[in-house]
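Q: Two folds, back to back.
A: First:
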Amino acid sequence: MLSLQGILSEHPFPRLLNFLHETDQTGRLLLKHSGISKTVYVVQGLAVNVESSLRDETLGRYLIKQGKITEDDYKKSVELMMNQGVQQGASLVKLGALKPKEFYQAVKDQTREKLLTCFGWTEGEYRYQEEISFVEDTYRFEMPFIPIMREGLARFFPDEFLDRELALVPDGPLIPEADLLERISSWNLEREESERVLQIDGEKGLPEILSSAGTKEKRLFYLLLMVGLIKPSNQLAEKLREVIPGEKHAPLQREALFVSLSAPEVIDEEPIEAEGDEDKRGEDEILAEYMEIKSKDYFSLLNVDSDAEDDDIEQAYHRKMAEFARDCFVPGLSAEAEARLEEINTQYIRAYESLRSPEHREKYRQELIGKSEFKARPGLEAERFLQKGMEYVRARDWAKAQEMFEKAVELSPEEPEYFGYLGWAVYSNEELDFEQRRDMAIEKLAKAIEINPNMDSIHVFMGKIYKDGGDAEEAIAEFRLALQCNPNCREAARELKAYGVET
């Protein structure tokens, strides 16, 4: 089994993702930086899910930034999570803040965004372990390789790292693959990018072609070189591709347990109904069931008690398979809904296989020991303190707010957003000396930005401090950064408008 580890400054994330794609890997890629971590789950060379320790990248915070739910919805969902042990998405559905199909699409969009921000991680460590054990318990969303690489490089990969990577390309004329134009015909290139590609004639080298190029064209050429569609002197630009120098790995053999991933975005078109299909169900129920099956144990999945007998298990299994048989649903389902339905039925089969006899059930019960009772995580306790602090903010009681945010930081000292709110509460707390609180606030906000530079709220706080100090140039820069992090950040747009700056 393949195992890798190293530092991201030597092997940037785009190179790692390309390596995993080319070698058809299935496994986990763990990234760590400044106390925060992300885990990228890869199946057959494609990233399918991402976990993040950042509060700003939880589903609830993502939905607030997208304007899909309110702060009050978020607060209620946290309480439900604490009291009932449900996941946040499920709690939002229970509260009526999201419909099941909206929940599914929101998780998919959020997962994509978490993956894209990995392109900005140029410091820290990585570790990859080839495995398949996570596959049956992990939500899987298709994120096609080229679109992800294009968007991640465009939005998050730093210019200085791009220039450093391109400097590794050896001298020599760039030679295109014979089918280059055909291969990139679906990439939706802009005019400048297309014109630059047409300059690859087998005679000009990279410096000549990119001598007057903009950043977009440079990023395109970086990708073309990395995936081997153009080659200096007809040799692969190995230094842009290396993770294990000089070593090749055979792709992991594909297993039957991997459900097809060829699924497009969920769209809201109504399925085509044939005569007699009026009583058949649509894809909403499929997507709703899919989002529940991964969080349920097998007894709950089949809707039986933990002391159920063989016959109970058998009957429950057949009921579920009949309920989600393909002919129960309208024709014309999207490819994504078809794939999810297949996964649902596969999960029922796994549940039956794990519970079909007393011996199997006892073994499964042992696996569930320690998991049956929900225990509040420190992160959720910290979230409660944050919500309490926000109540004090609304009441303009900055001293109490500061106290609550300090408790949140104590419980989750690696969460940048808590540092951000603490910094703003400190700055607003008039019980402290002005110079003292200003310096303390900037220190806390700088800490938050160091951990995660992609949070709009922190840049807004910092911008307001610079604005109060009369430093317009620094304030405008911070408000612009806030809009880059979140184009929907109204406060940053409002502040820039006050300065007469177009957004």
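A: Second:
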Amino acid sequence: MSPDERTPQHAAGADPVRTYTLQLAAELGGCDPALSHDAIIDAEVHLRAAERAGTPIERAIAEYGTPAEVARAYRENLGAAGLAYGGANRPASVTIAASAALTPLRRGFGALPIVGVWGQPEAWGGLLYFGLLSLPLAIFYFTWVAVFGTLAIGLIPTIAGLPLLVLLLASVRGLSRFQGQVIELLLRVRMPRRTQPVAGLAEVGFWKRIGCWLRDVRSWMSLGYLVGNLPMSIILFTITVTLFSVSALLLAAPVFYVFDIPMFGNTGDSEFEVWLFGVLASRPDGSGMISGLAVAPLFVLGLILMTGTLWIVRGFGWVYGRVVQAIQVARPQ
């Protein structure tokens, strides 16, 4: 046995399920973190259930499959909606959520360099999320945490403080999972489908479960995320709305010209026209009209700026989604 194969067993001690999940995690190296998270939890839940049912753990592992076999099944079905992982010696009831890459291999227009971003759902989803939904959601999350957090901290000396703190952490975990689903839908960053179980699920009582919540790093990471999300959302909202508004205005230049609609308002000051190099023709009422020669250049500039905007929000979405994903796949000790 190689040193690499001995390391997980040594780290896991005498717990064969822990050994198995560590080996599976090593086999899944390089996969999407959310996919690896689900694969490990599927294996842990199944093997723990078999162990509690009295099945010898060696037999349960043999029926479930070796870490290499399970990892290969996930990798081979990458991008599928799901896979019933069964076979002659494996339980068909074990379901593998194998949809790892929500962004499949590009085909058609979406595969084109630079301009292909116009055909990519995550770019338009990012525009919708950061330009419309992110700020209202962030305000709601921040308000919720601030109100309940202040109340819980203020009542800590009393008997009501701890239940309120537990309620806050439970709600924060729920809100974080909801936020993950919104991000997966719009930003196309995969979120975990499984929830990390409490060890010895059937035997853990109410108070011990609460203790697990209080010690779980994801509870506090989610709390910090929902608080810090507001200033970040304000910045991203401002950038997105500004870029989109300017891009849309420039793209609408032909419409403004054809229907003789003032594109800008100005003060009638001649310096305004000189600064714009004659692109606008001032009316006596102070409104700014674009000249016929300016329509095409403004439209092309709008196309370039909108393309850049889509790439920017797509990048925002990738980074933002990975942060939320990292919180949700964190493994409690």
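Q: And?
A: Residues 265 and 287 are 5 Å apart (CA to CA).
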